[in-house]
Amino acid sequence: MTRPTSRLLPEVTADSAAFWSGGADGELRIHRCRNCRRLFHPPVGACFRCRSRDVAPEAVSGRAVVASFTVNHHPWFGPMYPTPYVIGLVELVEEPDVRLTTQIVDCEPEAVSIGMAVEVVFEQHEDVWIPVFRPTEGGAPR
Ligand SMILES: [Zn+2]
Q: Which ranges carry the ChsH2 C-terminal OB-fold domain (predicted)?
């Protein structure tokens, strides 16, 4: 599976800057609420569970499990995004209800399965590090 050479980039905000730049240090940074201690995503200025504004990004392991996925065959963006590619919904091992919509890379679409262990890798495009996920070496399904 060929990875895109460029990507549509997000609009980085003050709240999301740590998420989009963590890859510079090899870190997947997810917001944690310091009041209820739960992780949450996407990063915003208040915890959706307890409404506390005492929230901040912190590094997590970058390990996750594929909760769902789809294989895209349509060339929505022409040659920019070679098809087919796998759009995945992954659950962080630290807190499974924190799910990221991402791309599953470094394996053929036929090899992806629900429950597959994956780990983050980063693609740098301009000043943004896009977190994508690849199968974990020797990773066992849950
Ligand atoms: Zn909270």
A: 59-123
* C-alpha of residue 90 to centroid of ligand 1, in Å: 22
Q: Residue 106 in contact with residue 139, Cβ under 8 Å? A: no
CATH of region 17-135, choose from 2.40.50.840, 2.40.50.730, 3.90.79.10, 3.40.50.300:
2.40.50.840
Q: How many residues does the chain have?
A: 142
* CA-closest candidate to residue 32, choices 58, 13, 50, 64: 58
Q: What is the pLDDT of residues 46-94, one digit of tens each?
A: 999 999 999 999 999 999 999 999 999 999 888 888 899 999 999 999 9
Q: 78: phi > 0 → left, psi -120 to 50 → alpha, else beta; which? A: left
